[in-house]
């Protein structure tokens, strides 16, 4: 192609004459393109070198070479933008088609409801009045449920133990599934926050007035239909609650489809209910319009068919016709419809746990949306849109996430066929301890073949569950992730990390009150929508004493954090981690521990529990009643279930000591979470009265010392000209001061912690007086603030006060707080001895 560029024409006398064009020859363009491929933006020296090395470019000025590269970069940018716009346009066209189909479906549903409403009204007018409940709504609902529970009475007369009978079940399951995916068989209600768009997850809806629980999602993916089907059929790869899927029989169908008899085991989300399993028929086939469909339903006594394998450790759940419909999209990619419809036998679990098994929102997040997100993630990884650091392939990092979740689920469930057995309790039933003495069981993907150092060693798991009141799961997980020192014990971390060494059991067990360690979080990968992140946590080592210098080494954790978005409805929040060594090999052994918080349905209960309260779930299961005085003034009773599981290795001689340590450690974590819950539980409303002023003699004395020391060191009154000498008045003035005033311990052998704060200081740190004493100063100030305090510390001790420049600090929730100035002064007791340091943050605000 002949490339034309603006170029000065060379004249015999004056060199260059402006206003003319030069036509580049194909050879010149080829030479320039070769250079552009290697370096799109060459320097001036490189352009001059190009002219010298290529004789065919000798008649072109360096300035014109520069212009050519500028134009070439501009054309490349325009080409990429045009390709991007074409992709967006293709997505928008497909989404428009999807929305038009959804609109047609909704119109059909409206017409169907109008017809039913008129029919029921006519029945009501002509009825004899003998029916007890003759309301329109109850008749419609009961009719729908009866129709769904008994869709085809002729199943009982059908012989489904042969291929023809199984094909009949498959065809009926296909018809029912399609009516749910694209029809009006289920009354779908769109989930809040799931807005359609070219880059959105898709359209997500949940069932209403439906037998069982159901969820539906449809969206666009840039993969071909058969590739999507291959990914979704591999259920354990994307469904974290799936333990295993066994295909027991494969039967070719006469129409080119395939019938499979499948046995699926699911993990229980908590320690308080049995796991579920499914015995299903899965039917895969192509439709006349070129779509590929995979539908699945349970085989029961009502449907007929072979009997599934029995299992005493599981409760058999029922899968109503479900599956996924994959339609090819013009220009590439697919339109994906997913339907999940199950009955998890909620009546077999304790009443307090039933919302977990009766919530379509939780089903949507854990299954339906998870499947769609996984396919989108694979699609973007395949196209190269997702970039990961550290030289790791996306599949490797995804495997790490799966292994962490699987190991944590194994610990929570403690299946007998994995080798787990209960260990005797210490008299209290709040902590469950299980051991696994089968080294052969740990050859699985979540542990690695070289995990246990010697035969006869095992793994011990201490676990517990508790009920949280009005504590948002996302907020609690963020706190646990960002403030590890508030709940973790360095000695326990050291013992867990020692399992990766040659002689792990030479390291002593945890000691009470281990010195807190600093943590540095290094991100590895995030899913496309940032709902899950994989990271490495470096714990900076400290020694308890000179003889413990062997423990003073950095440790590393591989950590998976999910569910930190507070706007997700029905989302499960989880923080799972496992010690790793510095090599961080792809097949590194993992022994996961962590936390899982699952929200229960929010209900309005006038006599609900107190807003700032955590309950032992064991007491809730025993039917404990609440006091009338604990009623929530706003009538809000938001609950969630927290499950804790920690795993440790042991040898034959240390089993009892490790079990004792594990129980003590998990109990201390439960206590820490109860204190944290008091701090982070949101106040019911902005009209709630502030925290009452502490009126103890100690508080009055401390306020007097703070005020007197400030005046003594700075020569000014802390409260201005209105300063009063009365103890109660002085306390109220300090408590209601507009600036944040905090007191910090003054110790040289330990990290300073806050001991007192006024109302404004508590608001700034987003905490309470009870939880304040667990917050360390060095975790609140940022790096420049800590350096400024260290540089001014000698001046504070000698002169009595110092002013720190404007800076940024962090609240207990991890939110950044900016302040214009901070004044620090030494608080003296009556005998002039040092009592603490006082901080006053002026004009602070959340960033």
From TrEMBL:
Signal peptide location:
none
Biased composition annotated in UniProt, kind: Basic and acidic residues: 7-17
Q: Name one GO cellular component term.
A: nucleus
- What species is this protein from? Arabidopsis arenosa
Give the protein name, as stated in the record.
Answer: Homeobox-leucine zipper protein ATHB-14-like
Family per UniProt? Belongs to the HD-ZIP homeobox family. Class III subfamily.
Instruction: Tell me where in this chain the Homeobox domain is found.
Output: 15-79
Polar residues bias: start-end ranges: 123-143
Named from the GO MF annotations, one term is: DNA-binding transcription factor activity
Q: Where is this region: Disordered?
A: 1-20, 123-160
Instruction: Respond yes or no to whether keyword Coiled coil is given for this record.
Output: yes
Principal location class: nucleus
Q: What is the organism lineage in this UniProt record? A: Eukaryota, Viridiplantae, Streptophyta, Embryophyta, Tracheophyta
Keywords linked to the UniProt accession: Coiled coil, Differentiation, DNA-binding, Homeobox, Nucleus, Transcription, Transcription regulation
Q: Subcellular localization, per the record?
A: Nucleus
Mind telling me which SMART domains this protein's record contains?
HOX (SM00389), START (SM00234)
Among Pfam families, the record links this protein to: Homeodomain, MEKHLA, START
- Residue numbers of the DNA-binding region are 17-80
Which Gene3D superfamilies does the annotation name? 3.30.530.20, Homeodomain-like
Q: What positions does the domain START occupy?
A: 159-387
